[in-house]
Write a structure and sequence with these properties.
The protein contains 3 helices and 7 strands. The protein is an alpha+beta fold. It has one domain: Electron Transport, Fmn-binding Protein, Chain A (Pnp Oxidase, Chain A, Roll), CATH 2.30.110. Strand 4 and strand 5 form a beta hairpin.
Length: 141
Amino acid sequence: MQHTTRQAALHMIQTIAVFTVATIDETGFPTTVVLSPLPLDRSLEQLFFYTSRQTTTVKNIQHNNRATLSCYNLANFSSLMMKGHLTLVGHEAFTTNWRNELTPFQKQLAYHDPVILKFQTNSIKIRQMMAMDHLELLPKL
């Protein structure tokens, strides 16, 4: 089942346009936003998001970088939930200029002080047609 879970999760990660991103604020409550991932380097292990440095999400990860991502595919009633960590990354995290990789929507946002957030996955839970599977990603040694 692990191979099927990995395949299905990777397919969703690479095709879903919007993720719900939840971080924890200073009072311990979740803050949820909807973000579109950058189209480059989408994998089970990591996703990148474009946002503004002034967002609550960025402020939240400065004191607690634990986060969850979730998405839903209405066409086949599947959902994906991911636990992991969000960090700010610089342009050196990419082999190409990340600004060239922005989607048309992301380009329209034209943030004054843009940042890239990197989500690193710890675990994945996927639900497909009423069946659920859980996958822990082990750190690479």
